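Researcher: Here's the sequence for the chain we discussed earlier.
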Amino acid sequence: MDGSECEEQKHLLQLFQNFHVHSGLSITEIREITAKVFVDLEEYIRSRPLRRVSQGEIPDGTGVKVGGGITAKVTRRTEVFADVSSPGSPTAASAMDYAPVVTKRIPKSDAVMAILKKALISNAMFSDLDEEQINDICECMEDMSYKKSDVVFRLGHPGDFFYVVEHGSCEVFVTKEEDKVVHVVEAGNGFGELALLYNKPRAATVKAASDARLWRVHGTTFKALVVESTYKKRKHFETLLSHVPLLSTLSQAEKSKVADALEEVTFQKGHTIIREKDNGDFFYFLMMGDAVVTKKSVKGTDEQVMTYTAGDYFGEVALLTNEPRRATVTSTTKMKCARMHRRDFNRLLGPLQDMLTFRKYEGGSARAKSGLGGGLSVDQERKHARRVSIVADATARGMGASLASMLGEIEEDAELEEAEANLEVMEMKSTAFRPGQKLELEHFEMGTTLGLGSFGRVRLCRYKEDGRHFAVKIMSKAAVLQMKQLEHIQSEKNILMQITYPFVVNLFGTFQDDQSLYMVFEFVCGGEFFTLLRNEDKLPNDQAAFYGTEIALTLGFLHNLNIVYRDLKPENLLIDKEGHLKITDFGFAKIVEDRTWTLCGTPDYIAPEIIRNKGHNKGADWWAFGVLLFEMLAGYPPFYDESGGFGTYKKILKGNVEYPDWFAIDAVDLISKLLVADITKRYGNLRAGAKDIMHHRYFAGIDWDGARKKAIQVPMIPDIEGEDDTSYFEEYDEDDEDMDDIGPEDQEKFAGF
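Model: Thanks. This is the structure I predict for it:
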């Protein structure tokens, strides 16, 4: 904590001390009042512009001052990926895919546990974990003893463990020569956090500066513990929600959203949680402890009505209305509760009263959900017929049955309208080649390299039969298997072969040989958006809004199909010959009905819930959209860190965004509603979905229907001399990498590609 934060903390403490003296309230009463105040404070903060950076001020680590402005040293960024095979990690939302983790617990003294817990709590990587999770991680840490000058790990070695120093100290070196100590890790502190996210080569060498005892936890163990506890807690909350009659009509997706929004609070013995005749605002689940329910008698005395124990709920009527409470609930032991404010429920799902009315809470909800008629209202019949028509239209346009069926699950009228509008601009899926033709490498004449990837390159190719040009992505099978990307490559093919959309690059076919995989895409000749952004430094507001419009439309289209993109960044956007954007590289795209747990993406753009192993869904794309809007307008991403590595993640977890003073007030407002760590409050993830973003005043004046049809003016049209013009792409070394051979067993894994 720096000096300014210490002073602010002291000032806030003084305010609370003065309030305690003058009010005469107990600490538990002050805690409850403060919780309610923070709800209003959050709304206030979210409704006002955040801190701005002046032209002459350089954000920490974001860039160097050039001509009075800021230019960041942002180079081409590579994506990261953590294997999903961590013990106990659910790889899908279904409980069928979940296997509890088995971990080894190491006995420790209370003193050691205290040191470890303190070190973890003070570290950004652990700041959002609860007491039980912290305790589990500490129990699984193993001890290691080192003599002075012993190496803990070396620069370039695999990153596998996170360490805490119990006693002694360690020195950090960032060069192979190990000639300069850049940092000393003292007792009670930790290092190696990046190993908790993925196995990346170490960026430094760490040696014991003296005889030292360290404790360490493996990254896979950490992820497994956090994912398991998070998963179990959410499923527990969803089960509890199913037992509340007032909420029985909620869909599984809605229960999941409510479970995410539940806030955990602790009350000491004797605390009044809700008071008779006070206005209702919170709904509670009792997780631990006991409480008594009392009502005032006609004589004014408190009469006990009933008691609550773990697993009970109370105050649910507050989700409907703020009418006065009918009884008082007081804790008789220390209590732990999960609660939700009516305002948060309305923001996520809309007013509960409206939901109950529409779904016929008094018994008709089951028939309404079945879609089989017999008791359905006229409106429900209309909506059911509309969904059937949408699915049929999508299937007729070449979309697979499983993907098209996602459109049949849409409930809201606004989303149905969006789906219909998107289908209108979807072209019929065509092969671009003769029906039944089996593509082979000899059918193409290889041209210049358009881009390099983690396991291959993209080349401009001419189809020999008719002279048309395509972009062919060439991937080494050996590299795909080594980097454990086969599932992602297959998912990319399966998704792109089913959809066509104005702002998504078209995939026309795939083939393979013994060493390589090939994906044949349309050639988008205007180059990478990344190059445009670097050349321009930053974009004017109207130009950024234009590109933001096309990206928002595309994310909305994908999300209606339950496709989460997961790697939005300038490097994955192409500009076509008419000046419109095309999203490419669907290697991390995945069909997700609830959430997924794999860490993947590009560090500058990764959402905090991914870093924290909480599971993620469509909300992660909207976080990345906020980062992209910021980078378009500023020339650098909001959490840019020159050191890279965990420095970027620490900034993301801290969540502080400094806005340059040239940002329009509407841009600041929208981005601040996207870069919200709490997914239950993030724009794009609320009840209205993408509509919250489309209707925001930053996009005022945008003709969204015209934009979808490419009927609005573009800010820049590339000067293209022919369909084989590659002048907008960077030049690369044209020497092909050697492709390693793979055995027969591995070849079988690519069957059907």
